Amino acid sequence: MVIDFNNLKINNLDFETEFQKKIKKFLDCWFSDMETVEVQTSGSTGVPKIFEIEKKRMINSAVMTCNFLGLQEGDTALLCLPVEYISGKMMMVRSIERKLKLIIADPSLKPLEDLEHEIDFCAMTPLQVENSIGKLHLVRNLIIGGAAVSENLKKRISGLKANIFETYGMSETLSHIALKQLAPHQEDDFTVFENVSISKDQRGCLRIFAPDVNPDILQTNDLVDIRNDRQFRFVGRIDNVINSGGVKIFPEELESLVKKEIPNEVVFLGLKDESLGQKLILVIEGEESEDLVRKISEIPFEKKFHRPKEILFIKEIPRTPNGKVSRMELNKHINDSL
What we know:
Low-confidence stretches: none
Distance between the termini: 48 Å
Structural class: alpha/beta
Mean pLDDT: 89
């Protein structure tokens, strides 16, 4: 199914699948007299919430992304993300605002499977990108969001000619307010859009003021290293910090290091321990493997206490509906199984 927003006639379109019917519902809402749109958060860091967002702010966000990527009227885009969440809704708004031709693909792990012609723009999760490497040459501009991009995936896409970016944002910032290029050149820092101000609180967590998309100063729980007034480096979430023997350990940093050596999804957790307070463990997705254990034992961790006290294997790491690792569910699963 293709929706040409330069010549849109909703009543002439056949919305057949459940996903297409959700798109029809969004379009009806968007072109109604209502000034807001209902959006659901992912629930990756707590209970999912539903809140109202002003359409004019969604348009502002769409303009920032389209301008940054140089998208023009008549360009083609692919929607392969759920429209319940801000990621899918913003793909719709960008297409409406810039009058793009939007190809609709029911969300799946292989969204480019049936793609035969080049497209100008697409947004995917890291898992979708993992399963689409062979067809990424058909995508001119790709943004990746919803979860951190693994070191292994960065290696696999680093040589591609497409413009590929990792996004930083949340539902409250209407998708993303910063991008980090991964291909054809790889950057370490996120660069914020124009008219976005960043700072840190006393904990070292990022504060965002993006008046075009949200009138409030947004306080995150993301620990960052601010390089200058427009660039920052993500360190990890403060609520994921593990306190082991009085030492703070940032699991995202260790996960990034391990993923340079093995292809599996990995998560570092802190389990309750009488002597240490929290014991550092490593959970690996996949079948138990002595070879993987050996590779991890050879990793040059910066500190002795960064080396996991225990390595556990799990068939499938729990994820939220939009593909993010659910640390809360994983922690509960590990504790219940011990």
